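Now for a chain:

_____
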Amino acid sequence: MELQKGQKCKLADLTCFGVDGAGKLSDDRYFIFYNQTSSPEGAVSMHQSGESTVFSVDLNRLPGFLQRLVVTVAAESGPMQALARGLLTLEGEL
């Protein structure tokens, strides 16, 4: 994840999106956020509980045109540098 110094964003606007080989969001159905919580085939889904947001990903169900998944994080109360702490965890199953 790359963040720019002084970058301003909203925590409530966590998103995950899939991009194609050109690094473009070529299909809006793979822009997963509070208003669209899953991809068409259910390969990517988002669940919120309190202050936590969880993205579930089934790599075997992702379409071939998606080359990467990108997760964005935002801070709604000020710049990212003002955050006291944050946690991004990646877990996997075999």
